[in-house]
Specification:
Length: 294
Amino acid sequence: MDMKLLSVFDEVYKTRSVSRAGENLSLAQTSVSLALGRLRRQFNDPLFVRTSEGMLPTPHATELIQPLRQALELLRVATKQHVVFDPGTSTRRFRVSMTDISHLQFLPAVIQRVDKVAPAIHIEILRITADTPKLLEAGESDLAVGFMPELEAGFYQQKLFEQGFACVVRRNHPRIEARMTASIYKRERHVAITAAGTGHDLVESELQRLGVERRIALSLPTLPGLGNLLAHTDLIATVPDRVAQMLVGIARVKTLPPPFALPSFAIKQHWHERYQHDPGNRWLRGVVAELFLE
């Protein structure tokens, strides 16, 4: 059995997808299908069965994966052949799971960098959902970026930076000038941003611990439009520092330190162990780290 067949088996097992395996190996989908056919004849087993969740391995394929991966690594070492990823020529599609806040913080810089060094690569953004861990495991998402405590266990991760919170109000707010006091914070009406990744639960928990009750006038499940909303109302928003700075740049708003000590939180990138050594995935993680690692 040659290295190409072993690589196809490994990639289909990781991605649960013939087309995705082809993209990652720079092979046509027909070539992957032909290789699967040879593997099935070799082992006298279907190996992978098409389902609504992708190409799921048969019990026999599950038994084979570890010894075949060991054989593949031995072949690579023996022949000194390693999977090569060339961003300058690659047409690979990367799927990155992000929260709304990550869209604002990461996408512009990432796309600018990718356009320069990897012009043929396609980035597809997925929303962070309860299925994100499964997508990472199945290879349907290459990377997840943002504040996602649910991905702390069972995944590789890299901390990019730490951030706290800031209050944002319109520049000509009639009752708030250069300082946010505790009495003003309790008296004024607030907009609560409940979008995933914004640290909303951290703020709520700390305020509750301190015995501070906000007057919530509006709850929003997303960040887009927040700057315009604040610029035209007297509402206060308590958001992550970097979001606050972005809002200052796009709307007539100002930022003020919160009157209470609020916790900070870490923004990280997460990936599944199956992609720890994947050259393309390593390159993508390197791009994110180069741009945002502090």
